[in-house]
């Protein structure tokens, strides 16, 4: 989970992973949901809210806890029970892949089904009432054009691949822009369309965004790259697509490693078969190594050990450390075990800096990244970009 807080007070949450053990019932486990709510603003009715929620792709570990902690449905049906303090989603950011992700091989979990149902509700409302007829809690932004013309009649709320998102909840005041790099659009007439459709199943349907964030009135103070669980094949294709014309689209000050520091993000070779003889994909590495000075890499994952299953993978960690430096590579779980708080960056006109604050405080802009793997841990905090 990553929470981005902008200078204007708006916030963008990327992915949700609040396990049942982190719902506050077990005193020995961090209350992830309450941690998040303590960092969020509240509206005039006292409801905590996110201005935008992006689910990068609907795997369980990217959408877990959605039904328990977020309000789904019309805002006027928000529960009146004071103890039911659900988070209102002012605007959903969703890829059309979510609507057709289910198959015999890839089952959607209950939270993912709920996300898809809510997305359909909001799209139907837009079709009925248009932009002016939808308000906070009913809005949706579709990230990527769907194939077979399925999004052709809602293009006002569609961001195409390679285009920029410049508004949160339709509020555009120059606080940020986010380039939509993926999911990859498939032209049904292209030669490799069938193979691409197969490639884009599961993790490779992930939304990839590169943010550029204002701070203290300074444009582009921080660049943040986030890519869900996209694998090496996607990064290979994206780099080949843009390396000659737009390599700067991949540059970053903070990057959340794709797929929890997985080796399969960086290589086509299997570690289990080749060990240290594996090769890094040059194209994928180039895409993921466009650092700006002093850049940080954050792995949302369990502690990284040599003999543990992938992800996370120690060989991938070595590669990211070589891209940045050992003191600028951060594993969320390792950091939590030492500090009992998420990884967090504060941003000023001079750029992002690693934050050592011990509690959530309201600041102009921040980026907070955290993971809740085998044991529920601290939740994403405000993130400045």
Q: Mind explaining what this structure looks like?
A:
The protein has 385 residues and is α/β, with parallel strands linked by helices. The chain has one domain. It is 22% helix and 23% strand. The protein has 10 helices and 21 strands. It has helices spanning 32-39, 60-63, 66-69, 110-129, 193-199, 232-242, 271-274, 282-288, 314-323, 332-339, and strands spanning 2-5, 11-14, 16-17, 49-50, 52-54, 70-71, 87-89, 91-94, 139-143, 158-159, 164-165, 176-182, 208-215, 218-226, 252-256, 291-299, 329-331, 343-348, 351-354, 366-369, 382-383. The strands form 3 sheets. Strands 1, 2, 5, 8, 9, 10, 18, 19, 20 and 21 form a 10-stranded mixed β-sheet that branches. The protein has a 7-stranded mixed β-sheet with strand order 11-12-13-14-15-16-17. Helix 6 (232-242) crosses helix 8 (282-288). The longest helix is centred in the first third of the chain and has 20 residues, at 110-129. It is globular and about 60 Å long. The two termini are 15 Å apart. Residues 358-363 and 371-385 have low confidence and may be disordered.
């Amino acid at each position: 989970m990553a929470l981005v807080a902008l200078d204007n007070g708006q916030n963008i949450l990327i992915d949700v992973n609040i396990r049942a053990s982190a719902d506050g019932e077990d005193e020995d486990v961090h209350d992830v949901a309450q941690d998040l709510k303590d960092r969020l603003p509240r509206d005039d009715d006292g409801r905590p809210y996110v201005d935008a929620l992006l689910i990068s792709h609907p795997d369980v570990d990217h959408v877990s806890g959605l039904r328990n902690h977020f309000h789904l449905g019309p805002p006027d049906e928000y529960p009146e029970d004071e103890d039911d303090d659900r988070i209102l989603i002012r605007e959903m950011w969703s890829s059309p892949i979510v609507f057709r992700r289910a198959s015999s091989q890839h089952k959607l979990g209950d939270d993912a089904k709920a996300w898809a149902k809510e997305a359909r509700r909001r799209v139907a409302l837009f079709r009925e009432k248009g932009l002016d007829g939808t308000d906070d809690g009913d809005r949706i932004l579709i990230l990527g054009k769907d194939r077979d013309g399925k999004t052709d009649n809602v293009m006002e709320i569609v961001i195409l691949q390679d285009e920029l998102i410049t508004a949160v909840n339709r509020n555009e005041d120059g606080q940020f822009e986010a380039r939509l790099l993926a999911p990859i659009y498939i032209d049904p007439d292209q030669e490799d369309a069938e193979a691409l459709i197969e490639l884009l199943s599961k993790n490779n349907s992930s939304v990839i965004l590169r943010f550029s964030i204002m701070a203290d009135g300074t444009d582009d103070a921080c660049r943040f790259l986030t890519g869900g669980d996209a694998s090496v094949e996607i990064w290979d294709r994206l780099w080949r697509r843009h390396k000659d014309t737009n390599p700067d689209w991949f540059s970053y000050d903070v990057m959340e490693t794709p797929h929890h520091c997985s080796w399969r993000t960086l290589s086509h070779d299997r570690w289990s078969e080749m060990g240290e003889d594996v090769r890094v994909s040059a194209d994928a590495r180039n895409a993921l190594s466009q650092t700006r000075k002093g850049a940080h890499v954050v792995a949302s994952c369990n502690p990284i050990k040599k003999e543990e299953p992938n992800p996370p993978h120690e060989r991938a960690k070595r590669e990211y450390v070589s891209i940045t430096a050992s003191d600028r590579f951060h594993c969320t779980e390792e950091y939590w075990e030492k500090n009992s708080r998420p990884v967090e960056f504060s941003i000023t006109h001079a750029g992002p800096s690693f934050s050592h604050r011990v509690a959530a405080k309201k600041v102009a802009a921040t980026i907070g990244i955290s993971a809740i793997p085998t044991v529920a841990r601290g939740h994403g905090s405000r993130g400045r970009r």
